[in-house]
C-alpha cells in the first residue's frame, strides 16, 4: 500500500492498494461538523472508508471519535457536512435508516436489555419482523459460523461481559452489514478474548465488509487496521497507514505533543509490609456465592502492587473491603501498619494512614455539585487542620485545594469550581493529589487513569511512583495492562474472586497475565505462602 | 352457600376497577414511566363518566367519557414528563391532586343524582345455574372487559413484536433509542393507554358499582392499583390474581365488621400495602444485584441526544 499519510487535507478518491482501477469509497463523510453549545465536538471532519478495509479512528477521550460514528450511524444529526454511501448522498433520520443501508454498530457501553433474553435482544435489532423461531435458528447459525457460541434463551443479566459483546456482534452480523462500526471493543476483554475478536474481524474483512474501528490503543490499531484516521480535539489530524507509523508517531498525532515517559525511581526497596490482607472473603451484594475467595496479599512500603483483571471479577468488592465501605468478617483479615483494621469504617482506616481513590470519580470519589475546596475537606478533615473548634476553616480548605491544584497541575476555569465542571483528567489529578498530599502510609487506587488523557495519565502515574518512593505502600487496581507493567513492582491477577500470587512485573508477560485473567490455573502453592507471611506479619 | 355466592359477586365487583386501572399502569410502567397520578385519573374518569351517562342516559357513552377523561389527564402528564422532561414522581402526585380537585368541581352538579347502573349479562339457563351461574354468566360488561383486557395485555407483551419493543424501552431507553425505536412516542402511547384504563376503572364506580357520584369516591383505589403493579412484579398473570386478592381484602374488611370480628378496619385496609411491601422484599431477596424484576428505566427521564 502506498503511503497515504496526508495531513489535514481530504483523501483523494482513489484506493491505491486495489491495483490500477480506482475504487470508490464505501462511505464518505465530508466536512462533518457537530457543535454542542460552545463546544465543537467535530470540526469539518473528512473520512473515507473503502470496501474491505479495517479503518481505525484513533484519538484520545473527548477527541470526537464517538460523535463522528454516531453521526455515521444516524444517532446524531450533524450541523454541517454530508455523508455519501456507495456514492449516493444520504441523510440519516435515525439508526434504523443507517441499518437499512447496511451500517451496523457495536457500542462501547453495550446497548443490551438486561431483562430480556439473548434472542429477544437480537430480534429488537432486526429491521424486519420475522417469526421468533426463525430468529432463534438464524441466531444459532450465525453464532456457529463465526465461532461465537450463544444460548438464545438465556437472559442477558446472567451473561459475562465477553458473552454480551458476542450478542452485540452477532446481532450486527445478522443484518449482513456492509459497514460495521465497533466502539472500543476490546476495552472489556482479556488479551486472549481480544485475539479471538480480531480473528472474527479479519474474517469479516475478507468477506469484503468494511470495519470502522474506534480505539485509543495504538498496538491494536497497528496490528489490525489498514488505515487510521487520527482525531484530536474535534479535528482530523491525519489519515495514515498505521503499520508504517511507530507507536510514538501515532501517539504524537493523537496528543499533539510528545508524551512524557514515566521515570521510575528504582531506588526504593520494599521494606516492611504496610498492608496485609489475610484470607479475605466477601459475599456479593446479592445472595449469590462469595465474590472474594480467601484473598491474601501483602504490600510493603515503597512498592506498587498492581491488580489486573477483567472488570467484574471482584475488583469492586476488593476495593470496598479495603476502604472500609464493606467490613470484613473479623478484624485480623486486614492489617494496616500492623493494626487489625478489618472491622474499621472508612474514617477510622484513614486515621491509620490509609487513603483511597475509587474508580467512579463523580458521585463516589467526589461530590459533583460541591466545590473543590469542599471536596478536599471531605476526605481530609481527620487530621488536616481544616476544621477548627467544630467549624470549617474556609481559608484552610481553599489553601488545601490550591495546594493540590498547584502540585498536580489541575487545570480549571476559576479558583474554586464545582467538581463536576472539571474534565475527567483534571478531576482525577485532583482526587489522586488530594490523597497523596496527605502522605498516606497506604494508598489503594482503582483505575487511576480511566478516561483520562495521556498527559494527565502520565502525571498521575509519576505521582504514584514518587509516592511509593517516599515509602508508601501503593495498591493499583487496573484493567490496563500497559499501565500496570509501567508502574508496578509486582502484579497479581483477580479472577472470579480469586487473587493469584503476585508475579514480579518483569516476569509478568501479557501472555501469562492474559491467561490468568481468563481463569487459567492459579498456582495453588503460592497462596499458602502468602498466608504464612501474613500470619508472620 | 348463598352468602358465599354474594361474597364472591361483591369481590368481583370490588376487584374490577383495580384490575382495569392496574392493567393500564402495568403497560405504562413496562414502558419505563412511573405515573403516580392513577388516583387522579380514576376520579376524573368517575366524575366525567357519571356526567356523560347522566346527561345522555347511556352507560356506553358514560364509559367513553370516563376513558376520554383519564386519557386527557394522562396527556397532561405526558406533555410534562415526556415533552418537557419534568420529574415523573412530582408530576404524578400533582396529577392526583389536580384530579381530585377538578373532579369535585365537575361532579358538584351531579352529586345526589342517580342513574340506572350497567346491565348485567343474562343468558337463559346458564345464568340460572346454581352458584356458578351468577358468578360466571351474570356480570356486567366492565367485568368481562377487564378480564379480556388483561389477557390481551399478556399476549401483547410477550407474543408481539411491539410488546417486545415496549419492554425494551422500559428496560434500557438509551439502547432502544440507539436501535432506532421511537422511545418517546412509544411511551406517549403507553401513558395514554394507561390513562384510558384508569379512566375506565374510575368510571366503573358510578356506572356499575354504585349508581351515583360522590366526590373522592375512588377512595384510594388508584393507590391500591399502583401497589398492585408492584405486587404483581410487573407480570399480567400475577396482576390478575393480585387484583382479586386485593379486591377480596377490601370486601373482607366490610364483612369482618358485619360478622362482629374484632379486627380494626384500619388494619384490614392497610393489608394491600403491607402485602406489597412484603413482595418488594421478596423480589429483592430472590433476584439479587444482577437483575431486577422492575423495568430498569422505571421513572427515569429520557432526553434524546440530538
How does this model look, in words?
The complex is a heterodimer of chains A (537) and B (306). Among the domains of chain A are: 260-353 and 440-537, 3-Layer(aba) Sandwich (Rossmann fold), CATH 3.40.50; 362-439, no CATH class. In chain A, helix 11 packs across helix 12. With 537 residues, chain A is an alpha/beta fold. Chain A has 17 helices and 24 strands. Chain B has 306 residues and is an all-alpha fold. Chain B has one domain: Orthogonal Bundle (ABC transporter involved in vitamin B12 uptake, BtuC). Chain B contains twelve helices and no strands. Chain B has helices spanning 2-30, 38-56, 59-83, 88-107, 132-137, 141-159, 161-171, 173-178, 183-209, 221-231, 236-258, 265-287. Chain B is globular. The model of chain B has no long low-confidence stretch (mean pLDDT 89). The A-B interface holds A 70, 74-77, 94-97, 99, 105, 107, 110-116, 120, 123-125, 129, 155, 157-158, 284-288 and B 161, 164-165, 167-168, 171-172, 174-181, 285-293, 295-296, 305-306.
Q: Compute the CA-based radius of gyration of chain B.
A: 19 Å
| C-alpha geometry of chain A | globular
CATH fold field value of the domain at 260-353 and 440-537 in chain A: Rossmann fold
Question: Count of helices of chain A?
Answer: 17
State the helicity of chain A in percent bands: 25-40%
Which percent band covers the strand fraction of chain B? under 5%
Order of helical and strand elements of chain B: HHHHHHHHHHHH
SSE layout:
The complex is a heterodimer of chains A (537) and B (306).
Chain A: E1 6-7, E2 27-36, E3 39-49, E4 54-58, H1 65-72, E5 80-85, E6 88-90, H2 95-101, E7 103-106, H3 118-124, H4 132-145, H5 161-173, E8 179-183, H6 191-206, E9 210-215, H7 218-224, E10 227-232, E11 235-240, H8 247-255, E12 273-283, E13 290-300, E14 304-308, H9 315-323, E15 334-336, E16 339-340, H10 346-351, E17 354-357, H11 372-380, E18 387-388, E19 391-392, H12 394-408, H13 424-436, E20 442-446, H14 454-469, E21 473-477, H15 481-487, E22 490-495, E23 498-499, E24 503-504, H16 510-517, H17 526-536
Parallel strand pairs in A: 4-9, 4-10, 7-8, 8-9, 14-21, 14-22, 17-20, 20-21
Antiparallel strand pairs in A: 1-11, 2-3, 2-5, 5-6, 10-11, 12-13, 12-15, 15-16, 18-19, 22-23, 22-24
Helix pairs in contact in A: 3-4, 3-5, 11-12, 11-13, 12-13, 13-14
Chain B: H1 2-30, H2 38-56, H3 59-83, H4 88-107, H5 132-137, H6 141-159, H7 161-171, H8 173-178, H9 183-209, H10 221-231, H11 236-258, H12 265-287
Amino acid at each position: 500500500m502506498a503511503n497515504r499519510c496526508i495531513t489535514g487535507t481530504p483523501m483523494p478518491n482513489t484506493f491505491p492498494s486495489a491495483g490500477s482501477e480506482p475504487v470508490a469509497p464505501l462511505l464518505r463523510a465530508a466536512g462533518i461538523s457537530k457543535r454542542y453549545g460552545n463546544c465543537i465536538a467535530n470540526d469539518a471532519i473528512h473520512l473515507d472508508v473503502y470496501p474491505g478495509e479495517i479503518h481505525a479512528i484513533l484519538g484520545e477521550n473527548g477527541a470526537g471519535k464517538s460523535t463522528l460514528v454516531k453521526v455515521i450511524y444516524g444517532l446524531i444529526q450533524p450541523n454541517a457536512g454530508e455523508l455519501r454511501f456507495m456514492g449516493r448522498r444520504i441523510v440519516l433520520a435515525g439508526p434504523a435508516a443507517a441499518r437499512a443501508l447496511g451500517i451496523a454498530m457495536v457500542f462501547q457501553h453495550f446497548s443490551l436489555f438486561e431483562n430480556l433474553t439473548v434472542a429477544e435482544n437480537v430480534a429488537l435489532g432486526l429491521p424486519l419482523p420475522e417469526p421468533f423461531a426463525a430468529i432463534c435458528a438464524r441466531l444459532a447459525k450465525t453464532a456457529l459460523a463465526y465461532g461465537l457460541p450463544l444460548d438464545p434463551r438465556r437472559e442477558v443479566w446472567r451473561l459475562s461481559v465477553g458473552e454480551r459483546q458476542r450478542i452485540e456482534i452477532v446481532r450486527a452480523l445478522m443484518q449482513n452489514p456492509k459497514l460495521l462500526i465497533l466502539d472500543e471493543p476490546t476495552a472489556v476483554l482479556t488479551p486472549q478474548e481480544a485475539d479471538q475478536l480480531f480473528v472474527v474481524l479479519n474474517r469479516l474483512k475478507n468477506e469484503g465488509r468494511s470495519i470502522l474501528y474506534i480505539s485509543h490503543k495504538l498496538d491494536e490499531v497497528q496490528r489490525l487496521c489498514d488505515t487510521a484516521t487520527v482525531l484530536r480535539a474535534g479535528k482530523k489530524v491525519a489519515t495514515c497507514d498505521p503499520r508504517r507509523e511507530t507507536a510514538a508517531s501515532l501517539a504524537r498525532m493523537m496528543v499533539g505533543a510528545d508524551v512524557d515517559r514515566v521515570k521510575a525511581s528504582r531506588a526504593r526497596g520494599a521494606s516492611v509490609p504496610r498492608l496485609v490482607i489475610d484470607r479475605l472473603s466477601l459475599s456479593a451484594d446479592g445472595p449469590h456465592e462469595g465474590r472474594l475467595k480467601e484473598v491474601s496479599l501483602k504490600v510493603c512500603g515503597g512498592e506498587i502492587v498492581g491488580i489486573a483483571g477483567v472488570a467484574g471479577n471482584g475488583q469492586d468488592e476488593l476495593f470496598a473491603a479495603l476502604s472500609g465501605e464493606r467490613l470484613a468478617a473479623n478484624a485480623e483479615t486486614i492489617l494496616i501498619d500492623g493494626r487489625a483494621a478489618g472491622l474499621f469504617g472508612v474514617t477510622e482506616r484513614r486515621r491509620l494512614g490509609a487513603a483511597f481513590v475509587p474508580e467512579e470519580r463523580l458521585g463516589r470519589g467526589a461530590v459533583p455539585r460541591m466545590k473543590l475546596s469542599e471536596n478536599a475537606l471531605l476526605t481530609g478533615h481527620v487530621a488536616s487542620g481544616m476544621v477548627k473548634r467544630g467549624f470549617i476553616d474556609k481559608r484552610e480548605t481553599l489553601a488545601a485545594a490550591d495546594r493540590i491544584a498547584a502540585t498536580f497541575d489541575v487545570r480549571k476555569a476559576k479558583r474554586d469550581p464545582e467538581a463536576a465542571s472539571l474534565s475527567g483528567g483534571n478531576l482525577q489529578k485532583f482526587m489522586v493529589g488530594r490523597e497523596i498530599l496527605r502522605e498516606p502510609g497506604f494508598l489503594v487506587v482503582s483505575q487511576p487513569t480511566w478516561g483520562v488523557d495521556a498527559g494527565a495519565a502520565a502525571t498521575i502515574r509519576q505521582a504514584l511512583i514518587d509516592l511509593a518512593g517516599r515509602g508508601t505502600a501503593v495498591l493499583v487496581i487496573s484493567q490496563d495492562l500497559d499501565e500496570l507493567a509501567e508502574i508496578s513492582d509486582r502484579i497479581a491477577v483477580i479472577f472470579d474472586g480469586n487473587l493469584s500470587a503476585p508475579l514480579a512485573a518483569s516476569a509478568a508477560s501479557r501472555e501469562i497475565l492474559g491467561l490468568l485473567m481468563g481463569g487459567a490455573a492459579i498456582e495453588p502453592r503460592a497462596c499458602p505462602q502468602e498466608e504464612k507471611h501474613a500470619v508472620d506479619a | 352457600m348463598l352468602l358465599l355466592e354474594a361474597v364472591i359477586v361483591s369481590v368481583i365487583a370490588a376487584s374490577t376497577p383495580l384490575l382495569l386501572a392496574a392493567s393500564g399502569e402495568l403497560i405504562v410502567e413496562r414502558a419505563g414511566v412511573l405515573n403516580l397520578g392513577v388516583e387522579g385519573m380514576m376520579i376524573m374518569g368517575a366524575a366525567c363518566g357519571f356526567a356523560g351517562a347522566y346527561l345522555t342516559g347511556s352507560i356506553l357513552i358514560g364509559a367513553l367519557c370516563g376513558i376520554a377523561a383519564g386519557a386527557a389527564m394522562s396527556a397532561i402528564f405526558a406533555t410534562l414528563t415526556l415533552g418537557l422532561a419534568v420529574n415523573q414522581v412530582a408530576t404524578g402526585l400533582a396529577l392526583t391532586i389536580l384530579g381530585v380537585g377538578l373532579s369535585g368541581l365537575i361532579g358538584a352538579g351531579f352529586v345526589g343524582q342517580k342513574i340506572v347502573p350497567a346491565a348485567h349479562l343474562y343468558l337463559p339457563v346458564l345464568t340460572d345455574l346454581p352458584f356458578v351461574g351468577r358468578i360466571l354468566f351474570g356480570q356486567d360488561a366492565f367485568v368481562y372487559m377487564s378480564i379480556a383486557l388483561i389477557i390481551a395485555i399478556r399476549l401483547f407483551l410477550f407474543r408481539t413484536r411491539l410488546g417486545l419493543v415496549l419492554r425494551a424501552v422500559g428496560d434500557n431507553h438509551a439502547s432502544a433509542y440507539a436501535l432506532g425505536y421511537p422511545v418517546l412516542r412509544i411511551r406517549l402511547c403507553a401513558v395514554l393507554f394507561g390513562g384510558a384504563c384508569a379512566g375506565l376503572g374510575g368510571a366503573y364506580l358510578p356506572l356499575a358499582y354504585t349508581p351515583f357520584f360522590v366526590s373522592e369516591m375512588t377512595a384510594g383505589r388508584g393507590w391500591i392499583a399502583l401497589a398492585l403493579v408492584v405486587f404483581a412484579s410487573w407480570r399480567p398473570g400475577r396482576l390478575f390474581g393480585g387484583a382479586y386478592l386485593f379486591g377480596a381484602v377490601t370486601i373482607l374488611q366490610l364483612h369482618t365488621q358485619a360478622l362482629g370480628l374484632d379486627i380494626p378496619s384500619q388494619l384490614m385496609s392497610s393489608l394491600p400495602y403491607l402485602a406489597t411491601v412484603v413482595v418488594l422484599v421478596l423480589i429483592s431477596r430472590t433476584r439479587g444485584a444482577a437483575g431486577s424484576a422492575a423495568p430498569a428505566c422505571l421513572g427515569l427521564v429520557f432526553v434524546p441526544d440530538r
